[in-house]
Design brief:
The complex is a heterodimer of chains A (437) and B (547).
Chain A (H helix, E strand, L loop, with lengths): L1 H16 L3 H26 L3 H22 L4 H25 L4 H23 L3 H4 L5 H4 L7 H20 L1 H9 L1 H6 L4 H23 L4 H15 L3 H24 L7 H18 L5 H34 L6 E2 H8 L6 H11 L2 E4 L2 E4 L1 H23 L9 H7 L5 H10 L5 H7 L1
Antiparallel strand pairs in A: 1-3, 2-3
Helix pairs in contact in A: 2-8, 2-11, 2-12, 2-13, 3-4, 3-5, 3-11, 3-12, 4-5, 4-11, 8-11, 12-13, 12-14, 13-14, 15-16, 15-17, 15-18, 18-19, 18-20
Chain B lengths: L9 H10 L2 H27 L3 H22 L5 H24 L4 H22 L8 H6 L2 H4 L3 E4 L2 E4 H19 L1 H9 L1 H6 L4 H42 L3 H26 L3 H19 L5 H27 L8 E2 H8 L3 H14 L2 E3 L6 E4 L1 H25 L7 H7 L5 H10 L24 E3 L8 E7 L12 H18 L6 E8 L4 E6 L4 E5 H4 L2 E4 L1
Antiparallel strand pairs in B: 1-2, 3-5, 4-5, 6-11, 7-8, 7-11, 8-9, 9-10
Helix pairs in contact in B: 1-2, 1-12, 2-8, 2-11, 2-12, 3-4, 3-5, 3-11, 4-5, 4-11, 8-11, 11-12, 11-13, 12-13, 14-15, 14-16, 14-17, 17-18, 17-19
The chains are: A mainly alpha (437), B alpha+beta (547).
Amino acid sequence: MDILAQSTLTDIAQFWSLEYGAVRTALAGVVLLGISCGMLGCFVVLRRLSLMGDSLGHAVLPGVCLGFLVNKTKDPLWIFLGAVLSAWLGSWLIGLIQRQSKLKPDTAMGLVLSGFFGFGVVLLTRLQNFPYGNQSGLNQFLFGQASAINERDLWLIGSMSIVIVGTVLLGFKELALTSFDAGFATAIGLPTRAIHYSLMLLIALAIVISIQAVGVVLLSAMLITPAATAYLLTDRLRVMVLISVLCATFAGIVGLNLSFLERSLPTGPFIVVTLTVLFLAAYLFSPRYGTVTRWWRRRKQTVRTQRENVLKSIYSATQQQSASSEIEPALSLAALAEHRREPIAQMPRLVAPLVSRGWVTLDGDRCRLTERGLQRARELVRNYQLWELFLTREINIPYDHTQRDAEDIEHILGPELVHELETELGMQNTTIAKQQS
Amino acid sequence: MKPFIPPFDFYNHLVQPWTMGGVDTAWTVCMGALVAIACGWIGCYLILQGMSLIGDAISHTVLLGIVVAFLLTGQIGGPAIFLGATLTGLVTTVLIESLHSSSRIKEDAAIGIVFTSMFALGVVLLSTLAGHAHIDTQHVLYGDIALSLLEATTIGPLTIPVTIVQMAVVVLIISTLIVAFYKELLIVAFDPQLADVMGLRPHWFRYGLMSVLSVTVVSSFEAVGAILVVAMLIAPAATAYLLTDRLPAMFAISAVAGTLSSLIGYHTAVWLEVSTGGAMVCAACGLFGIAFLFSPTQGVLATAWRRARLRLRTGEENIVRNLLKLSPLSAPSTVSIDQLISALGDTRWQVRWMLSRLLRRGWIAEAAGASGAYQLTETGIQQAQRLERAHRLWEMFLVDQVGLASDHVHPAAEDVEHLLSEQLVERVDDVLGHPDTDPHGSPIPRSAVSEHLPGVFTLSKLRIGDRGRIFALADGPTTGMQETPPTAQSGAAARVRASVAALGLPLGQPITVVDRNTADESWTIQLADGKTINVEHRLADSILVRL
């Protein structure tokens, strides 16, 4: 095990020494397409074109094989042309099937995806009957092999990335507008159709330059996953693009590194697994939209509501008690339990958080509100009453229907909103006064 | 050196596979057909429910289940693989659903993320840990039927490849399930809300479908691989969907299409020496292409043909209308082809062709003496008046009932006049109270009760000043689509007869229409003895008058 770890470490060190030309070109290529795919992916996800990306990814296979056939070598230019043509044909066919038949879009995409891929497989297996095809390494296009990126490929990837990044940066405003509000974009005279088709073309370009490194089968992940990750982390498009690019590039480098650890491991799946790990992290822990984060926030809110409800019970029970007799306003836990109609055994657990907050002091089994506790309890009662008043006065809800709403809301009204309500209601102190009388 | 596309040899590529080593050929084709049938039937439901791409996702992710099951048990095949695959299928469905319901990720992105990640994980495990498995990353994608048939078992006198037995069992299970739950599946597929109301729990059916799908995918996996399974799921079912509207027919057609694509695919693969699975998929998509182009109801050609027919009919009807306009009944003349061309704006060739069709149908005749000049025949005049009536009534309807401005209604009526059925025109006429002029003041031609009684009209269609004799009482409704059942109709007819008798109108009585009251829709007629009677709309529709 130690030896294994050792060799893994030396492998990683070797990778990062960047001694080998192959490592350098592969790294450069992966970074470039990480930038392109990450950027375009944002628009793919926002416009719900994810599955279109997937279909086009699969649909390039026959084009790649035909491009190979032209010179019987992996000439990047021909393969590039073939792939772009085949992606374009695929997207045209998807549109045609949708327009001309009652088939749903997903069926049309599935048909084109698998049909083109089937044709690609036929071509691929046909090529393997020939000596030039057998050693061509065309299989590497299925799952990607970044180490096979040579310098000519890199030139192509580089120039296409410049085209993609340049177009997106130049047309950023238009792309953003059409993605978020197509109707408005049309209304102010933007050529939405032309923009859509240009975007499709850019996606096709991005797909085509990714096939060498990621492979046709998992290509769509390169477009979808980083952008979806970013989408979970921010609400601003610029930030989203930035995060998406970072994710795609990072995953590309890590995946490349992992696939270099052993000979002939495909790159694509490793990149995709890395991307997924990033996505999962965002899905669970995104500050705003993470599942765990949201669960935690809800839980905190529940705990707080319960705490404050107990505080309120103590306050009102104390009030009642002091109203009926003139004794010291300290409340026994038994009285509190009776007031809350809950078993007395639960009371210490309920009161403990109040004590630790310094709202209540507990003396034996008698609890007493501190100054701060009293203040918070009055605030809560006041919030409740303000909201109740607001509901009956401004929203015209009958008085006997407001209790539940007001009970929920009293815990979350901030000072600003309270102030706002006071002004809105003309600083009504009547209910407060009534309460105190 | 071999050519890229070798010449097709009938004997070598079609006959020989069956004569020499016919058993292998038969098993291969049989396996392909079984895969295509099982996938096709499930595909029918996937297509109907708009879940094609979830099917796509599952056929990818099942790989992860297979690899994990292999890593745990160390063997390929057996119940572990099926269990693993079914679980993965369900996990995929649940993951996709929860991903897009619990976060702001949309469904399409959720599908994309789930299937790529699970598939990638499967490939990573396969290529690092399961290096000695007989699963090869390429076969994962497009399978190998020949390899999948290597292992055989003996049942009675027959030696059958294990995978075929497996596949046959799967087909049997699917068909049993379809027969057993046919009605429920039908409701869930076509009307999920109704299914919900009936307590059928659509999402349980969904999970069931996904489990069956996973099992099918696993059994097909070795033969056609992950991505080609998608084609088998979608293509035969989509082909069938284009050819029929009935679910049982859809099952039958998809089975036939699947079997055919297996057969065609096999021979193509023999001919080109390529992957059988790939060739099958191409054949299946080819069949879809044929259905897409040539389906009698849905096909591109059928649609284009219907559209062309409508255009032709519209053109012909426009010629007839223009003939009536250029040579009105009050001042009949002949109309030259050049006049028609300039009126219609069509090319000379089109006009000539349509004229020749109209001549053959007898709607127009060549004017005696002058060649290249035409006039309407009696039938032609009737047709032209029918169109004019539809046109002007529709204009009236748009102004009167829809509330459009009268200078906006002409183009709409121009299109609709060719589409309105005679019944609908009569109904519109009735609703409008049988108007005599259109919004522009032009008279609306009236329609006789029947083409066999040219001079007989209902009283409601007479104009002020018209003279005639009471001809008969109508038995049934004379104006369009009355929505009363026949028994109620005969009752109504009896009441009408009674009311007409009460008016004191004997048959043969000569009458003159002296007034039409548009407000309460009644007609005032004067009898021979000078007495005037007010007839309300409902009765006027039933009294037939010969002018």
